[in-house]
Fold:
Amino acid sequence: MKYLLFLFFTTNFIIAQYTVNDNGNVFTIRQELVKPSQIRAMLEGNEAYLKKYNNARLQKTIGNILMTTGIGFAGYNLIVSNKKTNYGETSNKDKYGPLLIGASAFVVGGIIKIGFKNKIIESVEQINSKQNISEVEMRVLANENGIGLKISF
Structure:
């Protein structure tokens, strides 16, 4: 019985296939989030893929900052351009400046963010290919006759 428990726990920790979702986060098979520092530790031996992963994370961060800044400038423009002066007329001073800056920052941020997911996927595929993963499936079965452990290779 000790050997079966040992086999059960070791196979659960050895088999760790990683996947990437739409926003670039890495998950295990059990849908547990893997932190970027853990991914960097797994890629430590392979400098090319580590550099690619770090560049992808930087690309995602810069894209997010630019897109958020663009939304902020556009929101600022909506608030300020609709502000009334003392005489009941709208102000024309810099009416479209913040909107143009915000729109261009948003577009540039979107363009920068386009390729980061593919770089993360390539790095995660490198991690998955380094592991010798065999298709081992373990199930606990129970019926009226008792409890059993089914191991499929």
Q: What stands out?
A: The radius of gyration is 26 Å. Strands lie at 19-20, 26-27, 33-34, 137-143, 146-152. Helices lie at 2-14, 36-42, 47-81, 97-113, 116-130. The CA atoms of residues 90 and 136 lie 70 Å apart.
